[in-house]
């Protein structure tokens, strides 16, 4: 368990988060249930924000990468913490704007932004759009002209950095749908193209090398490469970047083998980036740019847990024991996508030590519908309350209604109080958009 969280085992032997007993949470809100620890989220946002303030004279901003977990409450928290957000779709943008998030602190990403998304962003006055395609630049220029404004943009570049993480979350290898390659000159050509656009104002460059990365050196190399690209572009195109955005990607603890990083430890990742940017500016004779980072997983990942009720248990002698829960790939598809590892415990008997290795199965009609295999647990029985840890990022945001299961609700806990931030879906919600065509009536 991670010491920096408010996760603990209370005197009843129950798991507690944010001062709330998980057994009580399950009684009040039912399962499956996502639970988010507000103090953890705020603390992480502050660590990044304060590091930029302290070590870079406040000349930058932390953006919360809201794809990790997007709902109205999280944008409200980011707003209160005076940070920015990164959004990647019209839906995320709409959600952020719906709580009054200041548009100038919103950055829009995406490798294939849709025409209506670009229009919505320009109309809303979104501060910066991270350009990642030629037709997008044309559309954006036209939208900005229509709105009578100059749109600030960054260009997503691919600096070519191998990061040690799952292939599906590496984004800066030569074979990537994201960004323009520095190595083959594509980034330079796109830069010249953007500079030729009348209604676009190029501010600088963005890169994001991938997710769930622990090696500081991978981030440092990426920062060096971005700064060297800035120097090259200054020389070749007489354009000096005012802003650089180094993305997110800091790894979190999920299971044995993952590093446990303290909040201050994450600040040190950012310090390493800041030092690199300063050194490279010195070396290349560049002005210190406005510096942006956009962590998602490290802000919300360990802040969240999912509570499930144990149902059917199937022990196949000599093969495997399956412990089934009332959730599955519809609330957490990460095992199916990346064979992700998790840690689970019985929240109603949280002090008990694990005594067996089991597979935790979901309730969907797919053999691959698992939360994990080789999970260490005490002997679970029907009705036990199972907690899966570190599910705050890329769980709710990747959830679906597969098999017409309802996406579970989410509660925010703080100082022993819990409130919904996402209400439960009813069957009626699930069929809301279904229509019987006239000829079937
Ligand atoms: C452009 C960009 N920025 C930031 C992030 C956030 O990454 P993480 O949640 O690993 O910090 C992502 C994740 O995919 C991304 O694509």
Keywords, please?
441 residues, Lyase, Ornithine Decarboxylase, Chain A, domain 1, 2 domains, nine-stranded mixed beta sheet, alpha/beta, TIM Barrel, binds pyridoxal-5'-phosphate
Compounds present?
A: pyridoxal-5'-phosphate
What is the residue-mean pLDDT, rounded to a whole number? 95
Provide the CATH topology of the largest domain.
TIM Barrel
* Euclidean distance between termini CA atoms: 56 Å
What is the C-level CATH assignment of the largest domain?
A: Alpha Beta
Low-confidence stretches: none
CATH superfamily of the largest domain: Alanine racemase
Q: Please summarize the sheet with the most strands.
A: 9 strands, mixed
User: What characteristic shape results from the CA principal axes?
Assistant: globular
What class would the helix/strand composition place it in?
Answer: alpha/beta
Fraction of helical residues: 25-40%
Query: What is the CATH architecture assignment of the largest domain?
Result: Alpha-Beta Barrel
Q: How many beta-strand runs? A: 21
Radius of gyration: 23 Å
Beta-strand proportion: 15-25%
